[in-house]
Amino acid sequence: MSEARFVGDASQLPDHAFGSRSTTWWGVCGFIAIESAGFALAFASYFFLMAQEKQWPASAFPPDLMWGTLTTLLLLLSEIPNMWLKRAAEAEDLRKVRTGLVIMSLIVLPIFVTRAFEFGHLNIAWDRSAYASITWALLVLHSFHLITDWADTLVLTALMHTRHGAKGRRFADTSENALYWHFVALSWVLVYAVAYWAPRL
Amino acid sequence: MIQSAAHPTGAHAAITSNLFGLFLWVTGFFFLLVLVFLGWAIWRKDRGAVRDRALRLTVTSWIGMITLGLFGLTIASYFADRSLAFAGAGKTPLRMRVTAHQWWWEVEYLDRDQSKAVTTANEIRLPLGRPVQILLASDDVIHSLWIPNLAGKQDLIPGRSTDLQLLPRQVGHFRAQCAEFCGLQHAHMALDVIVESPDQFATWWAKSIQPAPAPATPEQKRGFDLVMTRQCAGCHAINGTPAYGTVGPDLSRVAHRATLAAGEMPNSRAWLERWVRDPQSAKPGNQMPKIPMKPDELHAVSAYLETLQ
Amino acid sequence: MSRVDGPDFTGDALHAALTETWSDAPGLWGWITTVDHKRVGRRYIATAFVFLALAGVLALIMRVQLARPESGLISADRYNQIFSMHGTTMMFLFAVPVMQAMAVYLIPLMMGTRQIAFPRLNAFSYWIYLFGGVFLWIAFVLNIGPEAGWFSYVPLAGPEYSPGKRTDVWAQMITFTEVAALAGAVELITTILKQRAAGMSLNRIPLFAWSILVTSFMVIFAMPAVMLASSFLIADRLVGTQFYNPAEGGDALLWQHLFWFFGHPEVYIIFIPAVGFVSQITETFSRREVFGYPVMVLSAVSIGLLAFGLWVHHMFATGLPRIGYSFFTAASMMIALPGGVQIFCWIATIWSGRPRWETPLLWVVSFIITFVMGGLTGVMVASVPLDLQLHDSYFVVAHFHYVLIGGAVFPLLGAVTYWFPKFTGRMMAEPLGKWNVLLSFIGFHLTFFPMHITGILGMPRRVYTYPAGMGWDTLNLVSTIGAFVFAASIVLFLFNVAISLRGGRAAGDNPWDAASLEWKTSSPPPPYNFDHIPVVESRTPLWDETRPVIPGLRTEVRELLVTTAIDAIPDVRDASPSPNGWPFIAAILLTIGFIGSIFTPWAVVWGALLMAPPLILWFWPHDPLEVKPEHSDE
Amino acid sequence: MRSFPAATIVLLLASAALGSCQREARETRDAPLPFSQQTLATTTTVMAGGGAAGAPDPRVAHYEKNAWHVSEGQRLYEQFNCVECHAHGGGGIGVPLMDDEWIYGSSSPQIVATIMQGRPNGMPSYRNLLTEEQMWQIAAYVRSLSGHVPKDVPPSRADDLASGPPITLQKPEPVRNSNRESGSR
User: Fold this and answer.
1) CB under 8 Å to C340, separation ≥6 — which residues?
2) Total of domains in chain D
3) Which of B235, B306, C188, C402 has the smallest CB count inside 10 Å?
4) How, if at all, do strands B172-178 and C570-575 pair?
């Protein structure tokens, strides 16, 4: 080993970075890719089943629009603080990040309420037909994402309010959490379009 | 009795068999090329300087050859597919419906005149030289009808309708089998395919629409009564009798068939008795229950069933 | 004080410092909490081989049953469970995991980094895989083994035709292994793209890494399909949804589309890593860089893409519209092109190199011959008219065993022989290895070649018995004899591994004089892999004149060099997590939740609540060193 | 210290094995218990209320705890057209089978007797159509419709038109009408 030739010096490199420079970003993107594939295939299944039927939905009313639309609006609204939070994280502004995370933790609560009403206003139980099953599946799939990202946000909020929060790497985590929320919101827009509007075509 | 794609006796199987021959030659040629190149690479003596330029040229021509080969095979496959679609076109096909059940085949010969329609089971009789269109359906799970001597297979899928075209070119007795795993007794879900002359076929059909013969001897009469009152009639139908069950195979001409229990055993009185005595030991899991019967009762039942020619 | 490696901190002192930082706790606790990719990788490989052996025993039982017609050795019920277990275990618990396992061990070493990305997730993924496999096998022993085949076609696998919990066990095992595989894929992609040695730009990474990169992307897009399909199945069976019920608008073909959208790429997910093995072995033993590197990479990528367009070719007999037949035929055949090109490049590498006929290269030759045969029969089944005859017959059984054993297991055995010195520090015994290749080649072809003919003679797959006098008897007997010969060769291989572990010749760092980075470090590698992070200036760094390194990573904390995705320019110093017991606990709790959700949908709820605390504790930072001021040497 | 988890695991496995053996076995051969119409006929009468309960019958568990039997029962229920009158448990021409009201008793032996003997006002006798074993299978399935077999045994639904809630989520209905049947838990 003594003949090792030393080139450059890594010690001057930063210990965290944002976006595609960070490994966690790649991890988060990997999972987003997996879940996108899941959603895409669920949509494909939806349209596959739809193509088998003369009438869609067969012997049922399409889901009521109100609660689903409300969820969509709330999720889109939540993007405002989310983007603000992401920018604050990348500026490593601890005070703003703390506020932003609290807002993001709270903003999900009304969405849970509208989501619960959505299930009640699908106008059909999951075991009635394939249409009902796939519609429920889409909503359940998205609700999982909503819950997991909410839990993640809660933990991060707690973390950022401790002494660990001041670390640069935590800002990167916050930024990636915000990225994931983008995915949750965007995927809902698609789920909403399919579950609420495809039956009305 | 054979069941083999290597001995085509139908127009469709013959087309496929020829195509297979072509594929075998072409792929064999490529395999040989690879072996020669590999052998050369292994046993090559003079290993001079690396000549990647020559290799690059070779790899380009290799890509060209593969592309050409695949293209040729695709074209051949396309034309084979077309001839499969048009084999037997122009003549009125014999129309049938085959419905698969776990683990037997219900076979119906369709006719505009309902009274001429024939229902049988685990046996397909076909007239020589006449195209056949079989409508396929399944009562439970996915099955696949494969008569390798006559044509490729086709799945029977619940909730979907598929069909299979045949054009028998040779008289003979062939075996066919379910080719899609369908549960416990998938292995014992065969059927007999009998290709006969149009005259023989017409005779068979004419006889099949007649009611079953009345029992003649006292033993047969007793057997008849047992079949009607013990659980048999709940599932099986016999033409012209009060037995009209649709759960199990139609027995109107059961004694005329070549095999029993979906091709599982030869059709003889001894085998028939063995089957009725304990269906679950011969074919575990099949839906025919064991009906407790004394030996003389069993004998009477088989005596009656033997008359259903 | 924080020290970094460099010219003034090297040799034994550095070794001591890094060992201190990167070692696991001693004993059982260290065994459970380890996140070292090498330890995890080793046990991953060993576990996969245990499942190979188990599934192999099942194969022998089937062959004994089929040795003669009308054999009554095992009942239909048992046989159906056995062939379902054989397929399921081989595909989900052996073939895919073993390839990822090899990658988990090798990729960080090949990339010149100290640890895999997300090592705790990696440990978690191993535990989940292990628990899923053990769960399936315990269920099998308890007579709850799957019985509807490894493909579980509905409606046979649906609530009405598969009573009891057998199919649920199968479907939930899918969830276990897919979680493990997906997590593995994310780790490997990140490791390959972000943790490469300085200067190892994308056009310099070893072909094995390319293979794993392509494979991992395929996993990401293919595996969700089967997870979705099996979740639908579980829902149909447990809460009465109607996804696959034709009477209520469901469709049996939905299952087949989803399953094969995963199932076809799955074959290539198994095969492409094997391609990587073959490339590495061929390179080392031909003593030249693999001929046609860009073509090889393009081939792997195009196989990866094409694999997603082919799923329909498993469904030719389902009565698809005739209009599409030619398209599907052409698409299915097209994949033979990149395969053929790769074969050519390997042979060209041997042809133009100076080959050394060590055992790994013999495995490669055995692979080439066998795999080409499998590929050519693949061309046959790609043709719709031919497939309608060959589909679901023993011909197909022969075809895919040629592709999977010839195309993946032979290279794998070669790879284990090749990397064994790196794993253990010892060489595998010779000439036992060479005899092993010969025996397995004979045994394999004796088993599977006759099956082509039995298939053409009309024998369908998945039958627990067959009648006499069909012309199948002798062929089946030959296959059975062959199966035992082949099994003997596998036993011989395991025996060789066992004796070499204890008494093998000491290997040294680079016994084969190979060119890739994993041979730069000692055998077996130290916990920290490399004392200094290598700098790479060509595709074959160890064949270069000099071996530069880049200094500057801290030694008292676990630190990795993160480089840019394309050019591998040093970019960030990233912390790597320390050993931790929570992944293990989380895996246990998740297992309980998964098994519970076979019986009640509420298990999803309480399972999630159970999982929350360990997950929080897993991610909660507790490294006291992290609050120390950074760059104290500045 | 090592023996404790090992023993626990063995115990757990053993209990799982016992449970799964009973649930998963494919009882395709002869039923292991003797059947006789005589013992059956005494378990109930044609009178409303179901009559006196007999001794616990081992056949009850044999059929009700076995998934194969319940599943065969489901299939026979379709094939022998029980659906025509009873629908999928909801009733119609005939009485509902998934509620809490049982005129002739809700235990398996009582249901078997009903199937075998027929009942006034429309329920025919199936004596000549079904074997006794098949009646027990149907009875086990009928019991599952009201949630009276173990949850992990019955199928969630048939591949048929949707009807009623999934059997697997069915809450056991308390049995009304004075009779306390022998076989229920």
Assistant:
1) B30, B62, B63, B66, C375
2) 1
3) B306
4) unpaired
Which domain does D101 fall in, by range?
Answer: 59-185
Tokens 């024939």, residue? B118
Same topology, domains B1-196 and B218-305? Answer is: yes
- Sign for the CA dihedral angle at C176, C181, C187, C190 comes to negative
CATH class of the domain defined by B218-305? mainly beta
> What is the pLDDT at residue D94?
85
Please name the amino acid found at residue C262.
F
CA distance C241 to chain D (A): 8
Residue of C59, C142, C143 whose CA lies nearest to C94: C59
The string of DSSP codes covering C27-69 is HHHHHHH---HHHHHHHHHHHHHHHHHHHHHHHHHHHHHHTST
Q: Which residues pair with C575 in a beta bridge?
A: C559
Residue C435 is encoded by which pair of tokens? 């005899």
One-letter amino acid of C114: R
Distance from CA of D134 to the nearest CA of B (A): 8
For A128, the closest chain D residue by CA position comes to D162
Please report residues of B whose CB lies closer than 8 A to that of C288: 50
For A51-69, write each residue's pLDDT tens digit: 988 888 888 899 999 999 9
CA-CA distance, C493 to C49, in Å (whole number)? 11
Write phi, then psi, for B144 (nearest 5 degrees): -145, 130
ipTM surpasses 0.90: yes
User: Is the Cβ–Cβ distance between D116 and D37 less than 8 Å?
Assistant: yes
User: How high is the pLDDT of residue C410?
Assistant: 98
Cα angle C466-D133-D25, degrees, rounded to a multiple of 5: 55
Kindly give the pairing relationship between strand B123-127 and strand B190-196: parallel
Calculate mean pLDDT across residues C188-216: 96
CA distance A195 to chain D (A): 21
> What is Dmax (Cα atoms) for chain B?
97
Within A53-93, residue ranges assigned H as helices are 65-90
Closest CA to C424 of C527, C522, C516, C495: C522
**Is pLDDT of C419 > 70?**
yes
Mean pLDDT of chain D: 77
> What kind of fold does domain B1-196 have according to CATH?
Immunoglobulin-like (2.60.40)
Best CA proximity match to A7, nearest among C532, D37, C59: C532
pLDDT per position as a tens digit, C466-495: 999 899 999 999 999 999 999 999 999 999
- Interface with chain D: mutation pick from A59, A124, A127, A128, highest number of D CBs within 10 Å: A127
Domain ranges of chain B: 1-196, 218-305
Q: What confidence score (pLDDT) does residue C629 get?
A: 39
The beta-carbon neighbor of D129 closest among B184, B231, B287 is B231
Neighbouring residues of A154: CB distance < 8 A, sequence distance ≥ 6: A105
CATH of the domain at D91: 1.10.760.10
Touching check for A99 and chain D: CB below 8 Å?
no
- Specify if D138 maps to a domain: yes
pLDDT tens, residue by residue, D123-165: 999 988 999 999 999 999 999 998 889 989 999 999 988 887 8
| Residue D128: Cβ within 10 Å count | 13
For residue D107, is it within any domain?
A: yes
Contacts of B68 in chain C (CB under 8 A): none
Cα–Cα distance between B265 and B288 in angstroms, integer? 15
H-helix or E-strand spanning residue C334? helix C325-334
Tokens at residue C188, please?
Answer: 């490997």
- Residues near C189 by Cβ (< 8 Å), separated by ≥ 6? A26, A30, C213, C216, C217, C220
Check residue C23 and give its pLDDT.
93
Tell me the pLDDT tens digit for each residue of B27-46.
999 999 999 999 999 998 87
CB D159 within 8 A of CB C155: yes
Q: What is the pLDDT of residue D18?
A: 65
pTM, entire model: 0.94
Integer Cα distance of D126 and D37 in angstroms: 13
